[in-house]
Amino acid sequence: MQGQAQQQAYDRGITIFSPDGRLYQVEYAREAVKRGTASIGIRTDDGVVLAADKRSRSPLMEPTSVEKIHKADNHAGIASAGHVADARQLIDFARRQAQINRLRYSEPIGIETLTKEVTDHIQQYTQVGGARPFGVALLIGGIEDGEPRLYETDPSGTPYEWKAVSIGANRGDLQEYLEENYADGLDLDGGIELALRALATSNDDTLEPAGVDVATVSVDTEEFHELDNDEIERHLTDLDLLPSEDDEDADDGEE
Amino acid sequence: MQGQAQQQAYDRGITIFSPDGRLYQVEYAREAVKRGTASIGIRTDDGVVLAADKRSRSPLMEPTSVEKIHKADNHAGIASAGHVADARQLIDFARRQAQINRLRYSEPIGIETLTKEVTDHIQQYTQVGGARPFGVALLIGGIEDGEPRLYETDPSGTPYEWKAVSIGANRGDLQEYLEENYADGLDLDGGIELALRALATSNDDTLEPAGVDVATVSVDTEEFHELDNDEIERHLTDLDLLPSEDDEDADDGEE
Amino acid sequence: MQGQAQQQAYDRGITIFSPDGRLYQVEYAREAVKRGTASIGIRTDDGVVLAADKRSRSPLMEPTSVEKIHKADNHAGIASAGHVADARQLIDFARRQAQINRLRYSEPIGIETLTKEVTDHIQQYTQVGGARPFGVALLIGGIEDGEPRLYETDPSGTPYEWKAVSIGANRGDLQEYLEENYADGLDLDGGIELALRALATSNDDTLEPAGVDVATVSVDTEEFHELDNDEIERHLTDLDLLPSEDDEDADDGEE
Amino acid sequence: MQGQAQQQAYDRGITIFSPDGRLYQVEYAREAVKRGTASIGIRTDDGVVLAADKRSRSPLMEPTSVEKIHKADNHAGIASAGHVADARQLIDFARRQAQINRLRYSEPIGIETLTKEVTDHIQQYTQVGGARPFGVALLIGGIEDGEPRLYETDPSGTPYEWKAVSIGANRGDLQEYLEENYADGLDLDGGIELALRALATSNDDTLEPAGVDVATVSVDTEEFHELDNDEIERHLTDLDLLPSEDDEDADDGEE
Amino acid sequence: MQGQAQQQAYDRGITIFSPDGRLYQVEYAREAVKRGTASIGIRTDDGVVLAADKRSRSPLMEPTSVEKIHKADNHAGIASAGHVADARQLIDFARRQAQINRLRYSEPIGIETLTKEVTDHIQQYTQVGGARPFGVALLIGGIEDGEPRLYETDPSGTPYEWKAVSIGANRGDLQEYLEENYADGLDLDGGIELALRALATSNDDTLEPAGVDVATVSVDTEEFHELDNDEIERHLTDLDLLPSEDDEDADDGEE
Amino acid sequence: MQGQAQQQAYDRGITIFSPDGRLYQVEYAREAVKRGTASIGIRTDDGVVLAADKRSRSPLMEPTSVEKIHKADNHAGIASAGHVADARQLIDFARRQAQINRLRYSEPIGIETLTKEVTDHIQQYTQVGGARPFGVALLIGGIEDGEPRLYETDPSGTPYEWKAVSIGANRGDLQEYLEENYADGLDLDGGIELALRALATSNDDTLEPAGVDVATVSVDTEEFHELDNDEIERHLTDLDLLPSEDDEDADDGEE
Amino acid sequence: MQGQAQQQAYDRGITIFSPDGRLYQVEYAREAVKRGTASIGIRTDDGVVLAADKRSRSPLMEPTSVEKIHKADNHAGIASAGHVADARQLIDFARRQAQINRLRYSEPIGIETLTKEVTDHIQQYTQVGGARPFGVALLIGGIEDGEPRLYETDPSGTPYEWKAVSIGANRGDLQEYLEENYADGLDLDGGIELALRALATSNDDTLEPAGVDVATVSVDTEEFHELDNDEIERHLTDLDLLPSEDDEDADDGEE
C-alpha cells in the first residue's frame, strides 16, 4: 500500500521528480514503449536497415495500415515502438524539420541534427506542465555525408547512436541476440537477415511476410526504400523463417 | 480497494500514463465506444458499405434523428459508435477538412489523408491537458483514386485500414462473424447483405428497417448514397431478417 | 463507501470518463434536469405545441416571471426543464444564432440547424475543462420549409427529433402517457389537449391556468404564439382539468 | 462522516454538479444570503417600496455606512441581503448597465432588462471556473413604461418577479407574513407600512429609525427616493413600532 | 478530526463558500488582522485622529520603520493592522487612486470614494481565483467637503463608516472602551487623548512615545499631520501614561 | 498526525491563510533563511557595515564564489542569508531598479526606496498563485542624502530599518549580542569590529579571513567598498579572532 | 508512514517550501544528478580539464553518442551529470548565450557571466509553477581574460567556483580524493592525470578509453579541445589504468 500511495503522488498533474530522482511519468511512458511490438535497426557498411514486427489484430485489417516504418525524408526513415498515435505526431514533426532544412539550406538534414530536434521536442513534454510525455521510442536511420547513421530516441528525450538496436517488446532478449550476432562489415542483405532472424526469435523462429516491415537507406542511392511483400518473402524463404501456420494477436493502439 | 485507489490516481486532471504504460482516460473512452450501438463497414470491389444499428429510445422519436451515418463529402461517408455529441464534433471537423482540401487543391480529399487529419486531432485530446479524449470511434469510407478505402479511428487517435470492421457494442462477436463470412470479390449488394446479417446476429437475427442505417459509396459514381427505408426493407425481406415484433431500448447519449 | 469514493474521483476539476465510459458530470447534469418541472412538446400536422408546468413558489410571485417557454425567433419557440439560469444562457445563444442567420442569409434559420448549433455549444462544455456542463434540457420547436419540427437537446449535447416528448420531472411516466395517447393526424388543438392532459397526470389530473405555459407555432402563420390565461383556461375547462383548490410548492432555481 | 466527505468533493475548485444534480457552491452561497439581515420589496399600485433591516454592530458605527438600499438609476433602486462586498460589485455592475442604456438608447433601462443583465452576470460565476458564485441576493425595483416592477435575483442567477418578497434572514417567516397581509390595491404608504410591520416581526415588533432603510420609486415621479430618519420615525410612530430600548448585534460582512 | 478535515476542504485553491455560507479564507485573513497590534481612529468635530500601537521587536530597530500610519494624500491618512506587506500594497493602491483623482478632476478624492475603490480592489481577491485575500484591515480618515470622515476596510472588502473604531489586537476590549468613553463634540486634542488612553488599556495603562504613532487631519488645514516624538510625549505626560520601564515584544510581519 | 495533516493543507498550490491567520509558505521560507549562514549589518555614524559568514564546503571551492555580499549600486550594498539562487534574483532586481533610477532621475536611488521596491516584489510572490515565496532575507545598506541607512527585507516582503541587525543562522543569539554591545557613536572600524566579534561568537570566537565577507559604504566616499583578505586579516588579528586551525562544513544551496 | 505522507505534500504541483525550509523538488533533482555517472573538472595553471565517466549500455552503442562533455563556445566547455535530456537543454541555452555575447559585444562571453546566465535560468524552474527543476548539474570551464575558470551549477541554480570538483555518482568519495590529491601548480597533463585517477577509483582503478571523455581549454590556445581515443589511451597507459577486461552497465537516461 505504501508503494502504491507513493506512486500516486508522482503521477498527478505534471511530470515531477520522485525522492530518488526519477521521473515516474517518463518511466511509465517507457512501459508504453515495451507494450508495443519490436522494431530493430541495423547499421551496415552499405546503409541502414529498419525492420519491425507488425502483427495485425485481424485477418481483415489491411497489413499496410499497421505502419511501423515511415519515410522521414528521401535519405531517412523512422521505425517506432509504443503508442501509435504519439509516434505519428513525432514522425510528422520530424518530416517538417527535414523539409524546413531543405528549404533553408537546400540540402538534406543531417541524421544527428534531425534526431536532436526530435529529442528536444520530446524533452519539453517531460519538463513543462500541461501535457504528458510521448509514449513512444523511435529509430531514426539514414545517410549523412555518405555515412550510414542510426539513432534511437526514448521518452525522456535522450538520443543514442547505435550499430544495432531493438526497441519495444522483448528489448532485453533482442538486444542480447543482436550483441551476440552483430559483426562489423555487414552488407545490407546481411543487415536485413540479422534483423529478421532477431525478430523471429520472439515468434517461434517464424515470420509472416505481411507481419513484418523492412526498409533500407543505402549509401549508394541515399534513398529510403521499403521492401515489398515479395522481397520480404524471398528473404524469409532464404532464411527458412516462413511459418507453417499463422498466429495473430490483438493489442490496443501499441505496436 | 487498492485497484480502485490506483484507478483514481490516473483519472484526474489530465490524461497521464499508468505504471504499466496505459492511458486510462483513453481506455475509458473506449468503454464509451462499447456502450454505443454497433456500426459496421465493409469494403467490396465495387465500393464501401457503412451500416449501423440505430435503435430508437421511443416509438415517438424520429428514427432519422438518431444519426449514425453521415456524409463527409461527395465521395466519403462516416459511421460512428459511442458518445453521439462527440461524434458530431469529429464529423464536423472532417467535413471542414474535406472542404478545405477542395478549395485548396480543387480535388476530393484522399480517404487516408482525411482519416489521418481526424486521428491527429483526436490524439491532441489525449496528450495536452484541459480536455478529455473523444468518446467515439468512427468508420471513414469512400473512394480514393478509383479505389474503395475503409478506415477506423479509435479514441487514442490511431488509424486502421480494414476490409471489414465493426465498432461499438458486441465488437468481439461481430468482428468474429465478419472474419468468418467476409470473402474477397464481394459486390456492393453482397457487402450490404453481410453488414445486415452481422448486425442482426446481436438482435435475434432480425432488424427493423427504421432501426438500421445503410449507406454506400460506389466506385462507379464516387457518390455517397444513403439507402431509404424501402431499399433497406427490400434487403431485409430478401435476407428474411424482418422481425415479427419490434423491440426498443433506451440508452443515454451513446448509440 | 467505495461507490462514494469512486464518484468523487470523477467529479473534480473537469468532465472526464469513468472506468465504464460514462461522463458523471453530464449524468449529474441530467439529474438537474429531472429536478425541474416538466415541459412537453407535441408535433401535429398543423404545427408544434410546447407546454410547461410552471408551479410558482408563492402566490405573491408573478406567474409570468417563471419563464418556461421562450420565443427564439418568429417561427421558433423553446421550452426548458432544469437549471433556470443555464436555460437563459442557451436561449440567448439560440436567439443570437437565429438573428445571425437572418442577417447573413435573409431567411429564418432551420429548426434542425438551430438545434445543432445549440447542441454543439453544449458539447463544448462537456469536453473542454474550466466549466461545468449545462444543467438543462430544451425542446426546440418551429416551422422549417413549411413543416413542423420538434427537437430535444440534453446536457451531453445530443440532438433528438420527436413527434412528442417530455423533459424534466416524471419524464418516464409522461413519456409513457404520450406514447399511449399520441396519434398521427393531430391538429394544433388536439396537440394542446394532449400536452395539458399529460401534464395534469402528475398533478391529480388538474391544472391551474397560471400554473402552465402553452405556446404554438402553426404551419399556417409560421408565427410563435403564446396562449394567454383565458385561452389556457378555456382549454382546461373543455378538458375538465380545472382544480377546485390550488397547490403550490417551492423549488430552488430549477423549474 | 460520509455526508461530509461527499460535500468536500463538490466544494473544491470550480462549481460542479453533485450526483443528485445540485450545485453545492450555489447552495452555500444561498446560505450566505440567509446570514444577512432581511430586505423586503413591495409592489403597490403607486410604485415600489424597498425596505431593509440594517442593524449596526456598534453605536459608534455610522448607520448610513451600513448600506442596504442603493439607487441604481433615477427610476430604479436595489436592496440586498448577504455578503456586502459582493453586493457592491453587482450594484456597480447594474449602475453601469443602466448608464450604458441611457447612452445608447437615450431612455431609462427597463427593470426586467436590468434584472436579466445582472442575473446573466451572476450565472457566469456559477458555470465558468476560477471564481466563486456571488453570495448575495438582490431586490431590483423601479418603474418601466409607467408600471411598477419588482424583481429578485438569487445566487444561481435566476430572476423572479414578485408582488411582495423578502430576502435574507427569516425569509420563511417574513414571506409567510407578506402572503397573509399583502393585498392588491395598496398605495405607497400602505406598502411602506406592510414592509415595516414585516421587518418588525423578527425584532419583537419594534424597529429603530436608524436600524431600517426605506426607499420608494413612485409611478408619479419615476424617481428613486430614500426616506430620511424623520420620515421613517413618523411611519414607525404611526405604526406604534418604536422600541423602548435598543438592541444591537454584530455580524461579519453580511447584512 | 471532523472539524479539521472540513476546514481543509475550504482552504485549498481559491476562496469558496463553506456549507454554512462562510468564506474561510476571508475569516482566516481576519485572524491575520487580529495578530497585528491595534490601530484606532477617532472622528472629532475638528478632524480625524489616527493612532497606532507600534511596538518594536528590538531596541536596535528604527521605530520609524514600523510604519502603522501613512499619508494617502494631503487630506487623508491610513492606519493599518495585520500583515504589513499586504498593507503596503493597499496603501500604494490608495495613493495611486488619489493621484489619479487629482489628475482627472483637479480636486482631492472623496474619503468615501477612496475607501470604496480600496474595498472593491480587496473584494476581487476574495472572489477570483489565483490569489489569497489581503490579510489586513485599514482605517481611512480625512476631510471631504469640509467634513471629517473615518472609514474601516476589512479583508472581505466591506467598507464601514465610524465615529470611533479599533482594528487589530484586542479589538473587542478596545471597541468597548471607545463606546464607553466616546462623546460627541470632541476636539482634536480630545480625540488624541481618547485614542492614547484606549491604546494604553492593553499595555498596563502606559505607552512609550516611540511605541505609538499618531496622526491627524484637521478640518481647518485639511492637511495630514503626523505627530513627532515630542508632541506625543507631551500628550502622554499630560495623560500620565508614560511608563517607568519599557517592554518590547517580537512578532513576525504583523503589526 | 493531526498537526501534520493540517500543515499539508496549507502547503499546496498557492500561499493561503491558515485558520489562525498565518501564511505557512512564508513561515517555511523564513526557515530557509535560518538554514543559511549569518549576515550582519551595522549602521555607524560614518557609514554602514555589512559582514557575512561564508563557510566554504570544501578547501577546493573558491571562497570568492560563495557570494554573501554584493554591490547594488555605487552607494549601496546587499548582504543575504538563505537560498542563494533566490538571493541572486532579488539582487539582480535591486540592481535594475537602481540603474533605472539613475537613468530616470540622474541621481542615486534612495536606500528606503530601493528597499521598498524589493519588498513589494517579494510580497507579490506571497499573494499571487503560481510561484513560491523567496527563501531569502536581505540587508540593504547605503548612503541616502548623506545619511547611512540600513534595511532588512524578509520573505513576507516587510521592510525594517535597523541600527544593527543579524539575519540567518543563530539570529536569536547574534541579535542579543548586538543589542548588548551596540553603542551610538560608532565609527566604521568600530562597526566592523562589532560585526566580526558577533559572527565569531557562533564559531568558538574565531574567524578565518577567507570565511568572512566584509563591506562598507562610508558617508565620506558614498562608495561601496569590499574589504580584501588582508584588510580582514588585519582586523581579525587586532581582535584576536584568528583561529589556530580551520573548520569547514557543507551545506546545500543555503549560505 | 508519516514521513511518506509528508513528502507527498511537497511533491505535487509546484516547487514549494517544506516546514523546515527545504525545496523537496530541488533536492530530488539533486538525486537525479547522483544517479548519473561522474564528471570531474580540474583547474590548472595552464587551463581547465573536464573529464567524464561515460559507460555505454551496450557494446553496440556508439560511445560518441553518450555525450558527457560539450563545446559551449571556442573558449569554453561543459561537462554534465544527471538527466541527459535536461543537460542538452541547458547546454543549448548556454551556447545561445555565448553566441549572443559575441554578436553584441564582439568578444567571448566571460565564464562567470555564462555560468550565472545558466543558473538564473535554472532558478526560474525552481520558483515559478508549471514546470519541474532541471535534473542535472554542469561543470562550466574555460578561459576568461587569460585566466582559467571552473564553475559548477546545481539544480537549485546556485553557481560555485572550484579548483577541482566532481559531480554525479560517488561525489563524496571523488571530492575527497580530489581534496587529498589536488595541488597548486598543476599543468594540463597533471590535471588530466588527476581527473583520470579520480574517475578510476570508482571503477577498480581501471578505465576503458571509450568509457571516458576528456577535454581541455588551455590558457595558450583559449580553444576547447576534446581528446581523441588515442590520446586518452596514451594517458591511461602512462597511468597504468587500462583494464584487462571490460565491464558495461545499463542506466536509464542518466549518465
What does this structure look like?
The structure is a homoheptamer of 255-residue chains. With 255 residues, chain A is α+β, with helices and mostly antiparallel strands. Helix content of chain A is 38%, strand content 23%. Chain A contains seven helices and ten strands. The first copy, chain A, has helices at residues 2-11, 24-34, 84-105, 111-127, 171-181, 188-201, 229-239; strands at residues 39-44, 47-53, 69-73, 76-82, 136-144, 147-153, 159-161, 164-167, 212-218, 224-226. Chain A has a five-stranded antiparallel sheet. A five-stranded antiparallel sheet of chain A has the order 3-4-5-6-7. Chain A is globular and about 50 Å long. Chains in contact: A-B, A-G, B-C, C-D, D-E, E-F, F-G. Chains A and B meet through helix 1, helix 2 and helix 3 of A and helix 1, helix 2, helix 4, strand 7 and helix 5 of B.
What is the compact description of this entry?
With 255 residues, chain A is of the alpha+beta class. In chain A, 38% of the residues lie in helices and 23% in strands.
